[in-house]
Write a sequence for this structure.
């Protein structure tokens, strides 16, 4: 967990600032994934810091949202061209 | 791509509580002003997309207008396409050296793993054989069958009964609408490599909001058809293309839902191959169902009775391919 925290700091994910008045502050929690060795023994808990998106307010903390999801038709077209051009 | 969402830069001002267990002792009442994106943030996928897209534009890729997840690079005879599905990337290039150059450039900016030649992508398996590509979703088809608890069902020869149309309001309500919706959605994803079921699936999807037992029987019929044809898929074979042709079959007024839904059923498929292929059903080069083409065609159709309309768009291949196929 310390490793993951250090990575976030190294990645300059945030800066500490005094709490401004009248702003929404989102909550965050640590999630732990169980990582197993190949023989099935527990190796370690992998920690991941996640934000609770539900504590965000649209228009204040985020404007537009978008997910980069490709259309199936595009995939077929690109693969078709790739095959045609070998 | 590793930890894709952590790469995004945040443009909005977002404050977050200090992580539990890691409060700064000297500034315990401070809060974190986020600079980079974190998992769970509503804008995380968008921040990641913008970061990736702006990096690609610095190395010469242009974003396709018709699909934001497609990036195109052209320089002389060199061409490359990048498809982005959240953190999965497909790269296809005209030469090996170009591919290596692009991978090196991407590696210098993001931490990523090269999985080598395409063989499995979004549940679709891709197999190469003698210059052709075969796409299939056998594993996914099996998953659907077992989700419907129909592992030992008898296969059906056809996906749908040709005689009767479903009625929107007759019959008993189906007891588990969630199961219906989940299976209908799964079948819809299966149409990726199974154009043969796209009509049948479109029909059952019309009743997602209020499924009846008769609709579920039709859905099970499709699954029984899948049971006998699990290994079906799409063959993509090389072709020398000069023209792009679009074919459409419209059934005006054939839609059984009377008022609140569009009344025409229009199917369009666009073979990227020479004209004259529509009878060759084994090849199915590319099937595209495009509402926009339906919109384009609808005013041309006679509003009375049933109408079948075949149109032949001819367009110079390279320039207009994208605008017609994916706009």
């Amino acid at each position: 967990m310390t490793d993951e925290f250090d990575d976030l700091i190294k990645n300059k994910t945030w800066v500490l600032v005094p709490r401004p008045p009248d702003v929404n502050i989102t909550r965050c929690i640590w999630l732990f994934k169980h990582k197993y060795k190949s023989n099935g023994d527990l190796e370690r808990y992998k920690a991941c810091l996640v934000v609770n998106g539900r504590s965000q307010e649209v228009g204040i903390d985020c404007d537009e949202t978008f997910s980069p999801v490709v259309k199936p038709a595009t995939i077929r077209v690109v693969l078709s061209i790739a095959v045609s051009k070998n | 791509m590793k930890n894709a969402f952590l790469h995004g830069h945040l443009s909005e001002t977002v404050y977050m509580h200090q992580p539990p267990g890691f409060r700064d002792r000297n500034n315990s009442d401070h809060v974190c002003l986020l600079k980079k994106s974190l998992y769970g943030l509503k804008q995380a996928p968008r921040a990641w997309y913008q970061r990736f897209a702006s990096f690609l534009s610095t190395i010469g890729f242009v974003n396709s207008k018709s699909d934001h997840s497609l990036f195109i690079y052209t320089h002389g005879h060199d061409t490359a396409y990048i498809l982005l599905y959240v953190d999965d990337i497909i790269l296809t290039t005209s030469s090996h050296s170009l591919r290596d150059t692009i991978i090196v450039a991407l590696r210098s900016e993001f931490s990523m793993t090269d999985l080598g030649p395409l063989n499995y992508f979004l549940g679709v398996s891709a197999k190469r054989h003698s210059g052709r590509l075969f796409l299939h979703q056998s594993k996914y088809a099996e998953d659907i069958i077992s989700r419907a608890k129909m592992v030992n069902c008898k296969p059906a020869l056809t996906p749908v009964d040709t005689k009767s149309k479903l009625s929107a309001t007759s019959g008993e309500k189906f007891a588990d609408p969630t199961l219906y919706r989940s299976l209908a959605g799964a079948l819809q994803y299966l149409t990726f490599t199974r154009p043969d079921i796209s009509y049948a699936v479109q029909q059952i999807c019309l009743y997602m909001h209020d499924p009846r037992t008769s609709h579920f029987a039709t859905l099970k019929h499709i699954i029984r058809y899948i049971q006998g044809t699990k290994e079906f898929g799409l063959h993509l074979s090389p072709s020398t293309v000069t023209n792009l042709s679009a074919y459409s079959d419209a059934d005006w007024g054939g839609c059984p839902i009377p008022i609140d839904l569009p009344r025409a059923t229009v199917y369009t498929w666009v073979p990227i191959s020479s004209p004259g292929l529509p009878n060759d059903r084994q090849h199915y080069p590319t099937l595209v169902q495009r509402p926009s083409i339906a919109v384009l065609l609808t005013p041309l159709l006679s509003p009375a009775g049933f109408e079948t309309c075949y149109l032949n768009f001819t367009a110079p291949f390279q320039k207009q391919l994208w605008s017609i196929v994916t706009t």
About this structure: The longest strand of chain A covers residues 42-51. Residues 1-57 of chain A form one domain. Chain A has a mean pLDDT of 79.
